[in-house]
Amino acid sequence: MIFFDEHNRIKKLIVQEYQTQNFTCLFDANPPPTSIYWLMNETTIVSREQVAYIPRLTSEHSGIYTCIVENSLGRVNQSIYLDVQCKFRRFRILFIFL
Fold first, then answer.
1. How many Å apart are CA 37 and CA 94, to the nearest integer?
2. Neighbours of 33 (CB within 10 A)
3. Which terminus of the chain has fewer Cβ atoms in its 10 Å neighbourhood, N or C?
4. What is the DSSP track for 59-87?
5. CA 43, CA 61: separation in Å to the nearest integer?
């Protein structure tokens, strides 16, 4: 899975809040991986599996998600930027005059 555009910039995925998002890390490794994990913003581990599952997205989920695959020969990674946008909310304003 390639996450970069034609100008070699990180790809951006725009989604609405309250949706569910899955990221799947595709790789071809020989020898097999000793470790697969997903980081958010280079610090927080969000999954130690090939698939990162994020239910009920909120704006706090916005950030760079990086899949890291390691084996005895080295490490590779690939990233994507997730932009969680707020849904339009309609508010009714009630004015009470006393």
1. 49
2. 18
3. C
4. GGG-EEEEEEEEETTEEEEEEEEEEEEPP
5. 13
Stated length of the chain: 98
Measured at the CA of 59, the angle between CA 16 and CA 3, to 5 degrees, comes to 70
Phi-psi region of 50 (alpha: psi -120 to 50; beta: other; left: phi over 0): alpha
- Find, among 7, 2, 21, the residue nearest to 85 by Cα: 21
Looking at the chain, the whole-number percentage of residues with pLDDT higher than 70 is 81
DSSP 26: -
Q: Look-up: residue for tokens 């304003």?
A: 93
